[in-house]
Amino acid sequence: MAEPTQPWDEPTLPARQPVWPTAPHNPAYRPGVAQVGQRPRPVAPPTETIVGATRPPAPRYPWRYQARQLRRGGEWSVLGGLFAFVCWGIWAISSRGLSLTVPLFTFVLVLLVAAGVFGLCRLLGRVVLERSMGRTRRGAWVSHAVTGLFLAAAGVAYLRQTGWVVDAFTWLRGL
Q1: Which tens digits make up the pLDDT trace of 127-168?
Q2: Is 23 exposed, middle or buried (0-12, 13-18, 19+ CB in 10 A)?
Q3: Is the residue at 30 inside a domain?
Q4: Single pTM value for the model
Q5: Which of 18, 67, 162, 171 ranks highest by number of CB atoms within 10 Å?
Q6: In this structure, is residue 10 part of a structural domain?
Q7: Residue 72 CA neighbour count, 13 Å, CB half
Q8: What is residue 167's predicted lDDT score, i.e. its pLDDT?
Q9: Within 10 A of 143 (CB to CB), how many other CB atoms are there?
Q10: Phi/psi zone of residue 73: left (φ > 0), alpha (ψ -120 to 50 degrees), beta?
């Protein structure tokens, strides 16, 4: 070995060999390899179908998660509700006298039916998608869209009962 010619070439400390801890109690121990628990063995699906067998129940999600799923697509219901409210207002002001009791009752009844339509759509989605097809629903936008369409149709029905709106529409069609 050649002698160092510069002072910075001289080693200051002797080189240390890395010391790996050994584990005599665990024969599977290897340095540098993380120990992980054993993987569960996959269960093979049954080859035969048993008549009358049911699927295990779907896991119950927390209420906050369910409420968040119900809000997805809610803009469709809000849009249909606003349209129905404006059309109802035009009908109530133009065709009734001073009392708004009966028109208000009819609008509340339409909103209750819309809530029933939404609930029925959610129930059908649960039966068809979750139970029959085994899929999970990611939101309620289809139910909200159907409810919004129902409310829009109710708004159009209110406008069809307003005389001056029907006259204006037929005049526009005649142009």
Answers
A1: 887 777 777 777 788 899 999 999 999 999 999 988 888 888
A2: exposed
A3: no
A4: 0.61
A5: 162
A6: no
A7: 12
A8: 86
A9: 25
A10: left
- Least Cα distance to 111 among 156, 141, 146, 151 occurs for 151
Cα–Cα distance for residue pair 154/74, rounded to 1 Å = 18
On whether residue 45 sits in a domain, the answer given is: no
Task: Report the pLDDT value the prediction gives residue 147, as an integer from 0 to 100.
Answer: 96
The enclosing H or E element of 117 equals: helix 101-125
Give me the residues of the chain with pLDDT under 50, please: none
- Contact between 87 and 159 (Cβ < 8 Å): yes
| Distance between CA atoms of residues 94 and 92, nearest Å | 6
Q: Sort residue 112 into left (φ over 0), alpha (ψ -120 to 50) or beta.
A: alpha
Structure tokens at 130: 């979750």
pLDDT at 130: 74
CA distance linking residue 129 with residue 125, whole number of Å: 5
State residue 162's pLDDT score.
87
Structural domain for 90, as ranges: 71-170
Q: Write down the pLDDT at residue 50.
A: 60
